[in-house]
Amino acid sequence: MSTKVTGRPAFFQSYGQELALFNTRPKKVGVALVVLVAVLGPFFLQDPLLRTLSLAFVFAIGALGLNMVTGLAGQVSLGHAFFVGIGAYTAAAISGDPDARTIGFGVQEMWVWLPAAGIVAALFGVLVAPIATRLRGLYLAIVTLGLVFLGEHVFREWSSLTGGAGVGRSAADPVLFGFDFSQSSSDSSFTGPQQLYSLMLALLLVFALAARNIGRSKVGRSFAAVRDRDMAAEMMGIDLPRAKTLAFALSSFYAGCAGALLYTISGFFDPGSFSLLLSVQFIAMVLIGGAGTVGGTIAGALFVSLLPTLSRELPRFLTFLSSSPAETPNVFQVEQILYGLLIVVFLLFEPRGLYGIWVRLRTYWKSWPFSY
Amino acid sequence: MSVLDQAPAGAHAATTSPATRIREHARVRPRAVALRDKHLGVWRPWTWAHYWDQVELVGHALLARGVQPGDRVAIHSENRPEWLVADMGALAVRAASVGLYPSNPAAEVGYLLADSGAVVLVAEDQEQVDKALEVLAQGGAPALRTIVYVEPRGVRGRYEATYGQATLVSWEDFLAEGVQHRETHPGAVDALTDAARPDDLATLIYTSGTTGPPKGAMLTVANVEFAIKVLCEEGGFTSPPPGPDDLLLSYLPLSHVAERIFTTWFNAAAATQVCFAESIDTVPQDLREVQPTILFGVPRIWEKLLAGVETRLTGATRFKRLSTRYWLKRASAIAAAVEANGGEHTRATRLQYALGWLFCYRSLTERLGMRRVRHATSGAAPIAPEVLTFFSSIGVPMHEAYGMTENTAVATSAKPGRIRLGTVGEAHRGVEVRIDEQTGEILTRHAGVFAGYWGRPEATAEVLDPDGWLHTGDVGEWVDGSFLKITDRMKDIIITAGGKNISPSQIENELKASPYVKEALVVGDGRTYLTALIGIELDTVGEWAQRQRLGYSTLRDLTEKPEVVELLTTVVDDVNSRLASVEQVKVFRLLPKELDHEDGELTASQKVKRAAVVAAFDDLVESMYDGRPAAATGAQR
């Protein structure tokens, strides 16, 4: 019988309906279309762009993690690069060649090293959390900033694990059940970048879905309550230390996984990669995309990751810019300035990020023919 | 034709009543949704099984409290499931319900309780309980034994010392008494429901009483069943007839016969799903959420929604405003073209409408909450044709209907595809309507004509002929043979000093079609020219004043601004330009306050009490006829 009422988007009969993954049909259709375009990517995009996009997808996974602790739970973290590094080294060590000069255990399967990287990073997150739960705002930012410097020092000095500064080590290989995604398949129907792109896209979809589901679960809603007012959240019966610890653990898990995947694409990495700049890049993704939303974060990650591709084109139009890092001014400097500039501009004019722009556009048409 | 014929006296054929219909739905579709009320942001469903269970419990509880068949049970509440449960619970044990308007002040509550002799009162909350207790303290309503309160806030634990459980009982405890009674007397309610007779009193509906104190119209089970048959099952009010997939929003007072039909009786007869609005103020929001398929409104609601469109358009961005204005203009052009083509779309108008639907009408109706309305009805008072055309031109199928409490609202309605603007449509099937040759009064005769006024045989004799014709008190005429056009209430017709008969309500409705006018009262009986008292709509005029950068503090302050008088002058002039010279409003004054039920200027159903208003603003009226030059207010043209 007709207990279900259809075609009335604002008619909520239960809270579950309000919390649904896609509470309206246009959302469902829109997401399906975007995913479809993304899946068809390998068939019409060139290998270099596919490579950039796969990297962007991995960055998006990392940004989703930062979004969970900063966007959802409201805890500013500048230490994201540290957790990314933990993940990268865990994965590299597990899958590394036992006979090489760096530590390696020779377990090449991704289903082992990927979760392991996440879990180890999450453990570090839990270790840091007790400090973080006692601090707020600027103080928390400073403490997490300290993590980055600690990490940088340890990674530089522990050369049996990391290969040492300026030398580096080979990263984990993306091998799943004996199939190496980075090598073009035996019948060469797909190239390496095409396969990597598909793998990263699939992983991003899994992580994004998980992030969205965490966001609308009891845990995610408690994060949002903590963000909006921690004291009020405590009054509602939310265990603050527990919520914050969980936020850090989940965020670090995402960071660890992103770290593990990040260098499988280039195959090699250096301990200097996990600097403050990486943390700032992640923050830029979350802030430009729109703090607190999954769709916005992914858009921000794509935007920031594709920025270098765009800025490399600059010397063609601005002849005084050099494309060589040795000369000044060069495009790499411009890139770094752009990150900072974009963060400033977005925070000043569009604090809700790309997602905010989208919401404004959507509201304009949703409120048609009125303005409110 | 009537239900009486189906159940001849003496036979044991069970009488159908709304109560038996609900019991039947509970048996056939126990898990389908019957009612919905908004609770903490969610539309909570009530299934048929639950609905009937509650009705049965109230029936048992009433029996436990010693209610006999024929007793009256008063209900004083906003629209909510408990209203229906109490109403149907009373009907199930052959008692009659009496609906009180939530806005009724204590004095009127006392009058209604005493006049109806209600033994049980279901009061919604502390506000209504306090009114009833005030009546009890003054010794009014001697028959009242029990007050049941639905909302415990502010009542529970406060009055218990003074009034024991015997007098004041909470809804939960009342239902618990029902549970207990059901265990000791199983089937008692069922037996009474089955024993119902067609001439059982089903409900007392008090007329609004624009001239005297309210009179209780006695509607029997047969009256109600006849109304259900004509208005619901034969599609008299909604064609094609309503069904289980139809959603309705219940927001007008259930003590009025119209809302009772659309909410309670439609639901009982056709298993429509009723959604209860949170309050009268949230109606626009509730409409948007529910998107009902059948919508009933009184003219005041339609006028207010129209004014809302106007206000929000002026606040919209330039592009949206220009686009919508354009498409609204197209809409009336399309409507005119369709009307000229005999009610059928031509290819050109269809194409234009389709474009307009894409750019404006679809989203506009969605925002108004009327996107899915398949049959909209306006009734209970006269409405300006402009308001009706606006809604039908944007794709809301509007129909006017005519009826009154005394004939269970069964008389005429506009049928889909057969609409004459300015008329209230054609008589329903099996309903006799005629116009008295001498007086022009409309008379109706059918099985829905009431049994008489409660305790007032002389008042009954005034309106009910021995041969069954009901005098409606409305003056009307036939248009195109079968369409009824209402001129006015008989006692409201103005005869000017020049001997012209003028119907004030038509002029008033033209004025009220403006978004700036809330109330209009045309005066001129025995005078040389017509004048009007106009109450402004505070929302729209206030917004207009803000846009003109005109500071104001109160409504009174606003009405004294020369700019506002100027604004209303343009409204009056515009209406005058469409009227014959004798019908034109020569002078007007703005009412310095909003008309109010508590001050006795409006009836409970928000109808203006003419005599009371004219008496209250005697100085304003006289100033319009003094021959003195019109001062700051009003203008003589």
Mean pLDDT of chain B: 90
Sheet with the most strands of chain A?
2 strands, antiparallel
- Provide a count of the helices of chain A: 16
| Proportion of residues in helical segments of chain A | 55-70%
Main pleated sheet of chain B: 7 strands, mixed
**CATH architectural name of the domain at 3-293 in chain B:** 3-Layer(aba) Sandwich
Number of beta strands of chain A: 4
- The whole-angstrom Rg of chain A is 22 Å
Counting H and I runs of at least 4 residues, what is the number of helices of chain B? 22
CATH names the topology of the domain at 3-293 in chain B as Rossmann fold
Radius of gyration of chain B: 25 Å
CATH superfamily of the domain at 3-293 in chain B: ANL, N-terminal domain
Strand-residue proportion of chain B: 15-25%
Give the overall average pLDDT of chain A. 88
Beta-strand segment tally of chain B:
25
The share of residues in extended strands of chain A comes to under 5%
User: Which sequence of SSEs, written as H and E, runs from N to C of chain A?
Assistant: HHHHHHHEEEHHHHEHHHHH
Choose one word for the global shape of chain A.
globular
Looking at the structure, what is the overall shape of chain B?
globular
